[in-house]
Amino acid sequence: METMTKNNHIGRKISRIRELRGMKQETLAEELGISQQAVSNIENSEKVDDVKLEQVAKALGVTKEGIENFSEEAVFNIINNTYNNTSSDNSTIIASSLNYQPTFNTIEKVVELYERLLQAEKDKVAYLEKLIK
């Protein structure tokens, strides 16, 4: 029962996604227009109301569902499946990252990331302009 509760702890998921994004609590607090202590309180909360969760998701650049369905195990599986190969005798061999060929177009991913970052900057500018008015 405790494992189920731990897996559904929205605050921990928010904290972990924030950390994976390389974002500090202070930065998230600024994005949300709240104090760092308020972010800490959110991250310590097992449940977060939908409106606040939407705001946090937007600030983190993910969807609300992305936070709700986040699984650290899934992240580790992706990492392991990306960088490990298994030989015919089932012993694990670490694949050289130089020999790794992604199954997606890396240029498209870079462009997609750039567009998302650009949109985030446009949103910040619009928000700041709104504050000034």
UniProtKB/TrEMBL annotation:
InterPro entries: Cro/C1-type_HTH, Lambda_DNA-bd_dom_sf. Residues 14-67 form the HTH cro/C1-type domain. It holds the Pfam family HTH_3. SUPFAM superfamilies: lambda repressor-like DNA-binding domains (SSF47413). One of its GO terms (molecular function) is DNA binding. PROSITE patterns: HTH_CROC1. Coiled coil: none annotated. This is Helix-turn-helix domain protein. It comes from Allomuricauda ruestringensis (strain DSM 13258 / CIP 107369 / LMG 19739 / B1) (Muricauda ruestringensis).
